[in-house]
Specification:
Aspartate Aminotransferase, domain 1; three-stranded antiparallel beta sheet; 14 strands; single chain; alpha/beta; Aspartate Aminotransferase, domain 2; binds pyridoxal-5'-phosphate; 2 domains
């Protein structure tokens, strides 16, 4: 029996009991009429979660990385120009995938901890015919939210397809692919949606799916398994053309997770994430812990905090896990050992978890000689809850 954990890394999250139940429901075939109905309902629920009217809204088998690979493989052809916005690990991963697709890459970079500057994108696009612009909406490696409006206008004015990585944000804060005019926007099941890892929700604009179908005649998508025209034929064509054996239990679970989101209401869910992030931030600051990302572009779903001087990151995270069963993440790349990344995501985003983490952290930091006023973190979080929560 695996241990029970309090999952507060940036994914996976704890699962609501109803989602766990869905995972052990009787399995059906992937073309069983019952399952096809569940697929239809899942597509409709995903349209709600993505706040989109795109018909081609479905889930791909595979994790968030399948959404990333698929977006680029479907839109980019060898020799095309791809402008890739990079402000952390996941932007850099998109650049690598685009490079492997045979595109000419123009990288628009921002230092880790900051979003990409729209002026830099404008300069990079000037005088170029660009097939695709890629942007990470929530950079999980740094806890930075990328403001989308200006960047998406620049891509639209240039006539480029816009790809948005919403892996860290979908279901946790406003993700609006229609307003951004994005060609493809993708997420992952295991973060703010609180479904198990293994499927990647994707929404594709009518223009983008027409383009993918059209190129099939002269320049087929090089990765057959991730060809969106093939997936679309299985999800939406009258004859539901076989493409792969769908991960049936994972789709049951995604369906249930999205149904719970609809029940909560997407705006209420965004507000819940913002509330618990504010409480966590207030608690950390009251303990004298510095936040990594500037408040003006701080992600609500991933809080990045600096490991205090003299404190050993690995020891704190190890003790959080072994003594309290709490998982948080460390920094990546050059920030390994220097920052913590705490998920405020989906079912894990609740007051009990925030309070437990702040209280546990205070004790573990004191062991390493880092002192703050006893109980200050929890008290500050409580004050946020007292001011923002209306009594039931
Ligand atoms: C922003 C972002 N994009 C892509 C991915 C890749 O997702 P996965 O690990 O599910 O393949 C992640 C994973 O954390 C992510 O945070």
């Amino acid at each position: 029996m695996p241990p029970r954990r309090v999952l507060m890394a940036p994914g996976p999250t704890n699962l609501p009991p109803a989602v766990l139940q869905a995972l052990i429901a009787p399995i059906t075939g992937h073309k069983d009429p019952y399952f096809l109905t569940i697929m239809d309902e899942t597509a409709a629920l995903l349209r709600y979660v993505f706040q989109t009217t795109n018909e081609t809204t479905l889930s791909l088998p595979g994790t968030g990385g399948a959404g990333m690979e698929s977006s680029i493989a479907n839109l980019v052809q060898p020799g095309d120009t791809a402008v890739v916005c990079v402000s952390g690990l996941f932007g850099a991963r998109m650049a690598e995938i685009a490079r492997r697709s045979g595109a000419e890459i123009v990288q628009v970079s921002a230092p880790w901890g900051r979003p990409v500057d729209p002026e830099d994108l404008r300069r990079a696009m000037a005088g170029r015919r660009v097939r695709v612009v890629t942007i990470v909406h929530g950079e999980t490696s740094t806890g930075v939210l990328q403001p989308m409006e200006e960047l998406s206008e620049i891509a639209r004015d240039n006539g480029a397809f816009l790809v948005v990585d919403a892996v860290a944000t979908i279901g946790g804060l406003p993700v609006t692919p229609d307003a951004w005019n994005s060609a493809i926007c993708y997420g992952a099941s295991q973060k703010c949606l609180s479904a198990p890892p293994g499927v990647a929700p994707v929404t594709v604009s009518p223009e983008a799916i027409d383009y993918v179908r059209g190129r099939g005649r002269y320049s087929p998508v090089p990765v057959w398994y991730l060809d969106l025209a093939e997936h679309s034929a299985y999800w939406f064509a009258q004859e539901r053309v076989y493409h792969h054996t769908a991960p049936v239990p994972l789709i049951y679970a995604l369906h249930e997770a999205c149904r719970l989101i609809a029940e909560e209401g997407i705006e209420a869910r965004w507000a819940r994430h913002a509330l618990h992030q504010q409480a966590l931030v207030a608690g950390l600051e009251a303990m004298g812990i510095q936040l990594f990302a500037d408040p003006s572009y701080r992600l609500t779903t991933v809080v990045s905090a600096c490991v205090p001087k003299g404190v050993t990151d690995a020891r704190v995270r190890g003790e959080l896990l072994s003594e309290y069963g709490i998982e948080i993440s460390g920094g990546l790349g050059e920030y390994a050992g220097r920052i913590w990344r705490i998920g405020v995501m989906g079912h894990s985003a609740n007051r009990n978890n925030i309070t437990l983490l702040l209280s546990a952290l205070e004790g573990l930091l004191a062991r390493q000689g880092y002192g703050s006023v006893g109980g200050a973190g929890v008290a500050a979080a409580d004050a946020v809850y007292a001011s923002l929560l209306t009594p039931a």
